[in-house]
Amino acid sequence: MGEVKDGMRIVRFPAKVLVASAASRGMYARTRPDRHGFPRLALPRNKQFFGYATGDLVRAVLPSGKYAGAWTGRVAVRATGRFDVRSERGIAQGVHHRYVHLLQRSDGYGYITREEEDARCCANGVSMRIDRSDD
Known about the structure:
The chain has 135 residues and is an all-beta fold. The chain is 0% helix and 54% strand. The strands form five sheets. It has a five-stranded antiparallel β-sheet with strand order 10-9-8-7-11, with no helix packed on it. Strands 1-14-13 form a three-stranded antiparallel β-sheet, with no helix packed on it. Strands 2-12 form a two-stranded antiparallel ribbon.
């Protein structure tokens, strides 16, 4: 290999890391207030529609239309059966529940994987970075 200078060391860590962030699990409110605080309209009492809840990780394969293709992301459910799927590509609106398949139930967290910064990938999938111990 090569020589490592004094005050430096080689650190190994994974090339991809899992990042978990808190995500809401819905609201308890059953009405929307107007600007004076009086109830304006009634919200649905169910949090699940057609077996899906807002925040579930889904894969939607749309055969045609504006959003044709495969979309993998979080779902926002509607009582009409037309859902929104939010992925890295954007939001696919009005996706019918027939085209949606559940991958993971929502547990209150949002998960993503990302590349580790300042990493050089090796053959076995583990990255290496040279740290300066004087920092």
